[in-house]
């Protein structure tokens, strides 16, 4: 969608010409719009602003959500790919064939060669010039040159097609052909904007017309159509009294004709009584309220054996033998062997009489000292010596540890 919002453009020339003065214009997607007016009305300036060739003095131009006046110069080439342009003087390259003129628009945007070979013949076929692909502009008529320009404008698939005086240099026949092509393009969904002063073309096409004069929009058929639609709705004058509608006259009802008496329907045959089941207990249901009670009590007798399936007896698991954990004998370590040998040697050993008497004497001396912690040097030395001899194993200690019977046996052996 294209929107011009309060657009003004003043050129910084000596006269400070005001080309546009507060223009408001909206063009919807898929429309076909003629912009008409005399020379100097501001039509070409409007196109230059739309293409980003000029910037407005004030106001904003919104195209598909982009503010064109604020676009950076580096983004303008990408933005202009939305448009295809057709000019009055065709602007074809004289040294290029019709095919090369159309392909030039593809090469500018970097299209690959294999795609160019597909799209250019298709564009020329749409304007009816597939047989003139190798012809130069000097070998073509004015109408054919304009059709080449249209093919060049359409080959990139633009969203908007702008034609600036496309029929200015054509006769009536070629004009009708070119306008027919533009209408066919519009039918595919492309928005077409035609700048022209040819009133006959405008009248024959019957499209939307925007008329400009002195930089302003003076007429727009879209406005006129909206005003006519609003005028077609007639408001109710205030001086007319609204009365209630008269009651409708009821039509005479026809006399009722008595309906024929219907024959009584035969009574249905009684259903046979169901066979009795000996295993089923059945009682009469008393659904009525008992005397003196307000609530209804339902008595229902159900055969539980019939609806409850028999439960299987629980399985008895056999008794399992007691769990026997095997005993694992670990190998005896060297330290354990030594401890066992020392225990056997010390078994049944008693201290010699001299040692016991010395210990009794020390105990008696401690009782006499009544808690004195000092120990005679000789006793301390003797006790230490005795303790050392008892704790430190050696040949002398082993002789003292051996029983007397073993000593005697050894002496006899010696």
What would you note in describing this structure?
Helices cover 36% and strands 14% of the residues. By secondary structure, the protein is of the alpha/beta class. The strands form 2 sheets. It has a 6-stranded mixed β-sheet with strand order 6-7-8-3-9-10, with helices on both faces. A 4-stranded antiparallel β-sheet has the order 2-1-4-5, covered by helices on one side. Strand 4 and strand 5 form a beta hairpin. The model is unreliable at 280-285, 294-301 and 372-414 (pLDDT under 50).
In brief:
By secondary structure, the chain is of the alpha/beta class. It has helices at 43-51, 76-80, 98-108, 113-126, 142-154, 172-187, 199-205, 221-231, 304-307, 334-346, 353-368, 377-391, 395-401, 404-413, and strands spanning 2-10, 18-27, 32-36, 58-63, 66-67, 83-86, 160-164, 191-195, 208-213, 216-220. It folds into two domains: 2-229, P-loop containing nucleotide triphosphate hydrolases (Rossmann fold, 3-Layer(aba) Sandwich), CATH 3.40.50.300; 339-365 and 375-413, no CATH class.
Ordered list of secondary-structure elements with their pairings:
Elements: E1 2-10, E2 18-27, E3 32-36, H1 43-51, E4 58-63, E5 66-67, H2 76-80, E6 83-86, H3 98-108, H4 113-126, H5 142-154, E7 160-164, H6 172-187, E8 191-195, H7 199-205, E9 208-213, E10 216-220, H8 221-231, H9 304-307, H10 334-346, H11 353-368, H12 377-391, H13 395-401, H14 404-413
Parallel strand pairs: 3-8, 3-9, 6-7, 7-8
Antiparallel strand pairs: 1-2, 1-4, 4-5, 9-10
């Amino acid at each position: 969608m294209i929107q011009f919002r309060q657009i003004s453009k003043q050129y910084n020339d000596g006269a400070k010409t005001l080309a546009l003065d507060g223009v408001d214009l909206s063009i919807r997607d898929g429309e076909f719009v003629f912009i008409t007016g005399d020379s100097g009305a501001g039509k070409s300036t409007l196109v230059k602003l739309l293409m980003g060739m000029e910037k407005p003095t004030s106001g904003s131009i919104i195209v598909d959500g982009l503010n064109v006046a604020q676009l950076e110069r580096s983004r303008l080439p990408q933005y202009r790919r939305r448009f295809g342009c057709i000019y009055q003087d065709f602007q074809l390259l004289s040294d290029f064939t019709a095919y090369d003129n159309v392909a030039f628009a593809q090469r500018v945007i970097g299209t690959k060669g294999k795609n160019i070979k597909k799209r250019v013949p298709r564009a020329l076929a749409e304007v009816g010039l597939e047989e003139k692909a190798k012809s130069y502009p000097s070998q073509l008529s004015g109408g054919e040159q304009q059709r080449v320009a249209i093919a060049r404008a359409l080959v990139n698939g633009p969203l908007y097609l702008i034609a600036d005086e496309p029929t200015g240099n054509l006769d009536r026949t070629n004009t009708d052909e070119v306008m027919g092509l533009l209408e066919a393009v519009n039918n595919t969904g492309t928005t077409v904007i035609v700048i022209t002063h040819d009133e006959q073309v405008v009248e024959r096409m019957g499209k939307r017309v925007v008329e400009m004069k002195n930089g302003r929009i003076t007429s727009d058929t879209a406005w006129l159509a909206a005003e006519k639609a609003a005028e077609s709705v007639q408001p109710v004058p205030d001086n007319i009294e609204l009365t209630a509608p008269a009651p409708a006259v009821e039509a005479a009802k026809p006399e009722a004709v008595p309906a024929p008496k219907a024959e009584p329907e035969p009574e249905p045959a009684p259903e046979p009584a169901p066979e009795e089941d000996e295993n089923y207990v059945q009682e009469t249901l008393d659904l009525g309220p008992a005397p003196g009670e307000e609530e209804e009590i339902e008595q229902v007798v159900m055969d539980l054996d019939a609806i409850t399936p028999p439960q299987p007896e629980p399985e008895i698991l056999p008794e399992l033998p007691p769990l026997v954990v095997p005993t694992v004998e670990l190998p005896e370590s060297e330290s354990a062997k030594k401890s066992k040998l020392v225990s056997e040697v010390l078994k049944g050993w008693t201290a010699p009489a001299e040692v016991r008497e010395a210990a009794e004497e020390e105990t008696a001396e401690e009782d006499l000292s009544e808690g004195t912690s000092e120990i005679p040097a000789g006793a301390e030395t003797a006790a230490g010596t005795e303790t050392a001899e008892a704790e430190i194993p050696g040949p002398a200690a082993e002789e003292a540890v051996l029983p007397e019977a073993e000593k005697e046996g050894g002496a006899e052996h010696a």
